[in-house]
Design a protein that fits this description.
heterodimer; A: 424 residues; alpha/beta; Alpha-Beta Plaits; 2 domains; six-stranded mixed sheet; two-stranded antiparallel ribbon; 8 strands; B: alpha/beta; 10 helices; 43% helix; globular
């Protein structure tokens, strides 16, 4: 078995393993990139939850405490009794001592200043009530400073969350772009895969399918464009070899048929084949209501010729007689070697009279024909022909009648043509 | 025999469950008069009752959340940590700051609020010391003074560490109220207390003799996050208490409890 030439070609498995590996690697890279983004988002959300939100809460607590100092400061100025003022001062001292304020230097300083100012105010007011209104303008400044600090801290807290959220949004947008890129990559790769499959696998297979469907010895050998896939190329080569095998088989079959249907000595069709063809032709002719005639011919004194000149001479006579037959009858007439020196004829589309004339002319031609034997001697032979009308009878019946007429021709002295109807 | 053993196991297990659902709670008090009031309620007009009430409410809410029945005991502050350490109490409340030394003795819950420390004294004493020092009195420049603090407190521990260097005479008192009394009867020049404890006492002091001196301090172990003390070996209880603290913070119960007794948020 011939090995396909894989010189310029690729094995399909290798090619598709390469493509799948490439795709897998690319996809893995994209997935890894997306996983990194996801990790960043998780980190950012974890940071938001563990660091930023507690930090925001700290800022909120700080802002709330500073605002409480400011409000209690207002109460120090609006209190109508020393006890009310003192309660507010205690609260201010308490809130100003809160660790959330102490750990934030700016707030601690502002709270300390406010506390000191308000305690002084409280002490002064206990002696002179008018000190309250005199110090109010200064308190307004301190209060405004506290308010601004509260606002700053609130914004600062919110900004912390905004920073983290912005980072998360940026990562998510990047991840979305990567996802779109991954989808385009996958789509493009699939498109490329479909194109390659179509070009190097599906279309060649379709071509092979069409070729195999119409593969016949009557068609020329199939031609295929050069395939890049080794396996496809191998199948195409096999298809070509199949066509060659079919053609060789057909030639052998015809040779065998010839050997089976022909007589080896004369080249005429043999009796078995004649019976098949003649029967079919007769049925066809009868089906169309046309006339047909069956005849049997037999060389006169052929045994004596064999005995006198030898079998080789007999064979030569038979071959020469066969040549005369082929030259003398129409293309449509059917002639076979029926056995020994006996021959059968079918004359389709011929009436008995037309056939008699044809047979008689042939009889005469044989009688006038010199046959050269292998030793150079020239001899002449005659024959008898019995005819039977086969326009309405079966071939067996017609042959039987023709044989009867042939027997009659022999009996009447040989070298003559007799029609079966004349003997009936 | 096997049946008896299985029955005994079931009984032991059941006993364990019952034991686990019974919690003994210690709450540090501010006044010696409160020590006699075991088990129930401190009258709201007593000195420092706000802080005790917050701790009491918080303890009961935590017990409710962890499906435990609690027995509340009011004890001097100095008894809270030793009580939890030797297993007499399962939960200890007392404005307890977390330090590495204390962590060797007891376990601590998640933070419940923040606290700082501040000097207390009379204005007259403060002015006299300020004149002597040439600047307003603060924890940083305090020297050659008699200072009182709560027994077992971090404030007392701090004072003891600087006493020799600063020439301080440190006095240990069983309750915060005793510290205030020492200032009032001039057996101490200054007191160093947690601000929350001091506020609870000063806000009810109608004499107005005592006031905060200098700025509050939250460093050097004098401030930070306040926790509940638990036995070292009872990690499941600590986790359950932490979950309860988180839950009562999230649903606003914690804020409602503190606001009920204090005019500000303690967290």
């Amino acid at each position: 078995m011939a090995t396909p030439d894989f010189g310029e070609r690729y094995r399909a498995r290798t090619a598709f393993v390469f493509l799948a590996t490439t795709f897998g690697l690319l996809f893995s890279v994209v997935v890894a990139l997306l996983a990194m983004d996801q990790h960043r988002v998780l980190e950012a959300s974890q940071r938001l939850q563990q660091d930023t939100i507690p930090q925001i809460i700290r800022f909120q607590r700080l802002a709330r405490n500073l605002e409480q100092i400011r409000q209690e400061g207002e109460r120090v100025f609006s209190a109508t009794t020393p006890e009310g003022r003192q309660q507010s001062l205690f609260l201010i001292m308490l809130v100003a001592s809160h660790p959330s304020i102490l750990e934030h230097p700016q707030s601690a300083e502002a709270a300390r200043d406010a506390e000191r100012f308000l305690i002084e105010t409280g002490n002064l007011a206990s002696g002179d009530r008018s000190q309250i209104s005199q110090r109010h303008a200064e308190w307004q400044n301190i209060s405004k400073r506290l308010s601004l600090l509260v606002d700053d801290l609130s914004v600062q807290g919110a900004s912390l969350a905004t920073d983290d959220l912005n980072e998360m949004v940026a990562v998510m947008q990047l991840a979305r772009a990567k996802l779109i890129g991954a989808l385009i990559l996958v789509g493009g790769f699939l498109l490329l895969l479909i194109l390659l499959l179509n070009r190097h696998l599906i279309r060649p297979l379709q071509r092979i399918d069409q070729t195999l469907s119409s593969l016949s010895v009557d068609q020329p050998a199939p031609e295929f464009p050069d395939a890049r896939m080794a396996e496809i190329h191998a199948v195409e080569q096999a298809t070509r070899r199949l066509h060659d095998s079919l053609a060789a088989n057909e030639a052998a079959r015809r040779e065998l048929e010839l050997l089976a249907n022909r007589d080896g000595l004369t080249g005429l069709i043999n009796r078995r084949h004649f019976m098949v063809i003649a029967d079919a032709e007769l049925q066809h002719t009868q089906g169309q209501g046309r006339p047909a005639v069956i005849a049997l011919g037999d060389l006169d004194y052929f045994k004596r010729l064999n005995d006198t000149y030898g079998h080789a001479a007999g064979d030569t006579v038979l071959q020469a007689f066969a040549l005369l037959l082929e030259e003398s009858f129409r293309q449509s007439d059917l002639v076979c070697r029926y056995g020994g020196e006996e021959f059968a004829f079918l004359f389709p589309d011929s009436t008995v009279e037309q056939a008699r004339a044809l047979a008689d002319r042939f009889r005469q031609r044989v009688a006038d024909h010199d046959i050269r034997l292998p030793d150079g001697l020239l001899i002449r032979v005659t024959l008898c022909i019995g005819l039977a009308d086969a326009s309405k009878s079966t071939i067996e019946s017609a042959l039987h009648d023709a044989d009867f007429a042939l027997y009659e021709a022999k009996r009447l002295g040989r070298n003559r043509v007799i029609v079966a109807a004349e003997t009936a | 025999m096997k049946c008896m053993r299985a029955l005994w196991l079931v009984v032991c297990l059941f006993a364990g469950i019952v034991q686990a659902s019974e919690l003994r709670v210690a709450i540090g008090v501010q006044d010696p008069a409160q020590l006699a009031m075991g088990g129930n309620i401190i009258p709201p007009n007593m000195p420092g009752s706000e802080l005790i009430a917050v701790n009491d409410d918080l303890a009961r809410e935590i017990c409710r959340r962890i499906h435990a029945r609690c027995t509340v005991n009011f004890v001097p502050f100095s008894e809270v940590l030793p009580g939890v350490e030797d297993g007499r109490f399962d939960l200890g409340f007392g404005n307890l700051l977390r330090t590495p030394e204390r962590e060797k003795r007891v376990a601590f819950s998640a933070p419940i609020w923040h606290s700082s420390s501040r000097l207390l004294g009379t204005p007259t004493t403060a002015e006299a010391f300020a004149a002597k020092l040439g600047q307003p009195v603060s924890i940083d420049n305090l020297r050659d003074a008699r200072v009182a603090a709560l027994e077992g407190s971090l404030q007392l521990a701090f004072l003891n560490t600087i006493a020799n260097q600063r020439g301080l005479a440190v006095a240990s008192k069983k309750t915060a109220q005793e510290v205030i009394e020492a200032l009032r009867n001039n057996t101490a020049d200054f007191g160093l207390l947690s601000v929350l404890s001091a506020y609870a006492l000063l806000s009810r002091d109608t004499t107005r003799q005592i006031e905060f001196i200098g700025s509050a301090v939250a460093d050097r172990g004098l401030g930070g996050t306040v926790h509940i003390a638990l036995p070292l070996q009872n990690d499941p209880l600590r986790k359950a208490v932490d979950q309860a603290i988180t839950a009562i913070r999230v649903d606003g119960t914690f804020q409602r409890i503190t606001r009920r007794h204090y005019p500000l948020g303690l967290d």
